[in-house]
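wait is this the right file?? whatever heres the structure
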């Protein structure tokens, strides 16, 4: 009889724009998945809720390069909706929040994809500098 192995399964998220493996980054206890190629970011729903509720977390994440890196010279088509990094279903392309002028891709079950620069814009919209 073979020995029982307790193996930890790690989900590797893929960039919905260019297919690269996303880098897992932990910034001030917030986990984001970042693409080094297109510089987009995947945030799960729990992370979004925490960022909206905590001004200090917003400020800490805004200081991380994944939030404000400039767009690369060549971008994949950012006008089309992407597939969810977790379930593979097509995300809904919608405004981040009324009046934000930030278009993001949302999977209502798992999270949100933000193209390069959109994370910083969303953090700014949520109130950078205001500590809740």
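ok assuming it is, sequence goes like this
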């Amino acid at each position: 009889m073979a020995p029982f192995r307790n193996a930890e399964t790690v989900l590797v998220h893929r960039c919905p724009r260019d297919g690269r493996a996303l880098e897992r980054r932990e910034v001030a206890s917030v986990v984001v998945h970042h693409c080094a190629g297109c510089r987009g970011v995947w945030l799960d729903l729990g992370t979004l809720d925490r960022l909206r509720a905590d001004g200090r977390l917003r400020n800490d994440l805004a200081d991380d390069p994944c939030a404000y890196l400039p767009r690369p010279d060549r971008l994949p088509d950012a006008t089309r909706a992407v597939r969810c990094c977790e379930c593979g279903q097509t995300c809904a392309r919608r405004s981040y929040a009324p009046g934000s002028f930030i278009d993001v891709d949302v999977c209502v079950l798992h999270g949100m994809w933000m193209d390069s620069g959109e994370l910083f814009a969303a953090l700014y919209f949520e109130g950078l500098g205001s500590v809740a």
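Residues 1-10 have pLDDT under 50 and may be disordered. so i think its the right one actually
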